[in-house]
Specification:
Blueprint: E1 14-17, H1 24-37, E2 44-49, H2 55-68, E3 72-78, H3 81-91, E4 94-98, E5 107-114, E6 118-119, H4 126-139, E7 151-153, H5 157-167, E8 176-181, H6 187-194, E9 205-210, H7 232-241, E10 245-249, E11 256-259, E12 265-266, H8 268-285, E13 292-296, H9 302-309, E14 313-317, H10 321-331, E15 335-337, E16 343-345, E17 351-352, H11 354-366, H12 372-377, E18 383-384, E19 388-390, H13 395-406, E20 412-414, E21 419-423, E22 428-434, E23 441-447, H14 450-464
Parallel strand pairs: 2-3, 2-4, 3-7, 8-9, 8-10, 13-14, 13-15
Antiparallel strand pairs: 1-5, 4-5, 5-6, 10-11, 11-12, 15-16, 16-17, 18-23, 19-23, 20-21, 21-22, 22-23
Length: about 475
């Protein structure tokens, strides 16, 4: 029976269960469709993947489909997702990496990029690729191009490390001890190259490695630092080693999460604010009068407030990397941040890279003497719930219940991405948004103080789950 690709093609990537919704057969058809839809016959297509057990087979299958439709395949091997963006940007070539990011071991998927690290989303060709690949599957054959492509290989890790080092100078920072939890994901390869001395000269950083062994079965904990239980080992190690901070990466190492010297979690919105401040300062020094900073709608209101105060212009957008990258390009933005810990940089082809965000944080900490908890306090003035997920059968009905109960004269309702209600007079706002990749209704609440946040959070959850 032919697999229905609509089960694995999401709004801005592909994710499915290996052997069920994603197989070598579906990947081969997708590789062929990728070449056809993006008109890549006779051009180079980059193919890489993460450490999941199925990634090597899928990389080969995608390459076979692309070669059959006439593309030249450059295999770039074992990579983090932001290594794909680096390679796509510097080589000006379209590409794919096989990863399911933070999802469990039974999953795999694809993140695709046009030349120049331009994202491929549902609005820019991903569903066209899906539909053509489905046709190839249904017909049981992929037609051969007049001239099949060629295969070459290249390791991009050293170039990636050198490029990131050129964007943030850490050589003059005070010595820092940093615990890094790679979660058995790709940061186990990229951290020694960028922050250590595996490729380049040593920095004034003492790296304490945690779960650097590449293992796509995730034997220690899921590579999803968004869940608090997956930060416990990092928090313990920071305190045991007397480290200045801890950094956790997700499975494909495109997101980074931070804990301070006491083991306390640092809000990704606070990281966004800190990096935004640094990038505004740098852009203004280069002559940009009003640098643009992108933030998604669930990022703390502290971010646009700081951006405005520092002479920048904040632009709010919906959640999702492909959408933010598009707005980054449209607005000529210098930086963008999401509360999910995706960080986007003009100087990194408008793409997201957790490693570069981590380097900015290390530089900011290393330029002064305060501990991280004190440094970050100024960037985190509000009380936030964090993301609270609810599995709800009727998501639209749940949102309607909330709006009917809470909307009023003093409450503003917006529908940019999900539904956002805000009450400036009482000092709170929240967003309810159905997940693009999981069966959840997601709630984020922020308020002027913890008591107000908890009151609003509990009332909304009562309505959602009733």
């Amino acid at each position: 029976m032919t697999i229905d690709l609509s089960a694995s093609f999401k709004a801005y990537d592909v994710r499915g269960i290996v052997g069920e919704s994603i197989t070598a057969e579906t990947v081969r058809a997708t590789g062929a469709a990728f070449v056809d839809v993006l008109d890549l016959a006779g051009r180079t297509v980059l193919v890489g993947g993460d450490m999941r057990p199925s990634s090597p087979e899928f990389m080969d299958a995608f390459a076979e489909g692309a070669l059959r439709r006439g593309a030249d395949v450059l295999k770039i091997g074992l990579i983090s997702t932001d290594e794909l963006y680096y390679a796509s940007g510097t080589l000006d070539a379209a590409g794919v990496t096989f990863t399911a990011s933070h999802n469990p071991a039974e999953y795999n998927g694809m993140k695709m990029s046009k030349a120049g690290a331009v994202p491929v989303s549902s609005e820019t060709g991903l569903y066209d690729i899906r539909d053509l690949a489905q046709r190839y599957l249904d017909e049981g054959r992929i037609p051969a191009a007049p001239a099949p492509g060629t295969v070459t290989e290249r390791d991009v890790l050293a170039g990636y490390a050198e490029y990131l080092r050129s964007l943030v100078d850490l050589s003059g920072a005070r010595p820092l001890k940093v615990v890094v939890d790679a979660g058995n994901g790709m940061a186990g390869l990229t951290t020694p190259a960028v922050l250590g001395d595996a490729v380049l000269p040593a920095l004034p950083l003492e790296i304490v490695p945690l779960y650097f062994e590449l293992d796509g079965t995730f034997p220690n904990h899921p590579a999803n630092p968004l869940e608090p239980e997956n930060l416990v080992d990092l928090q313990r190690a920071v305190q045991e080693h007397g480290a200045d901070l801890g950094i956790a990466f997700d499975g494909d190492a495109d997101r980074c999460f931070v804990v301070d010297e006491r083991g306390g979690t640092v809000s990704p919105s606070a990281v966004t604010a800190l990096v935004a401040e640094r990038e505004i300062e740098r852009a203004r020094a280069e002559g940009v009068e009003t640098p643009v900073i992108i933030h998604n709608l669930i990022t703390s209101r502290a971010v646009p407030e700081l951006v405005t105060a520092r002479g920048g212009r904040p632009v709010r957008t919906r959640v999702g990397h492909s959408f933010i990258k598009a707005v980054m390009a449209q607005e000529s933005a210098v930086f963008g941040g999401e509360h999910s810990a995706h960080y986007y940089f003009r100087d990194f082809f408008n793409a997201d890279t957790g490693m570069l965000a981590a380097m900015h944080l290390l530089a900011a900490l290393g330029e002064q003497e305060r501990p991280l908890s004190e440094l970050m306090h100024q960037y985190d003035p509000y009380a936030a719930s964090g993301e609270v997920n609810s599995t709800v059968e009727d998501k639209e009905g749940a949102v309607r219940r909330v709006v009917d109960a809470l909307a009023g004269r003093d409450v503003v309702v917006e529908t940019l991405d999900g539904t956002t209600l805000s009450c400036p007079d009482e000092g709170w706002w929240f967003n309810l948004r159905p997940s693009n990749t999981e069966p959840f209704l997601r709630l984020n609440v922020e308020a002027k103080d913890a008591e107000t946040m908890e009151r609003v959070r509990d009332r909304v959850l009562e309505l959602v789950r009733s």
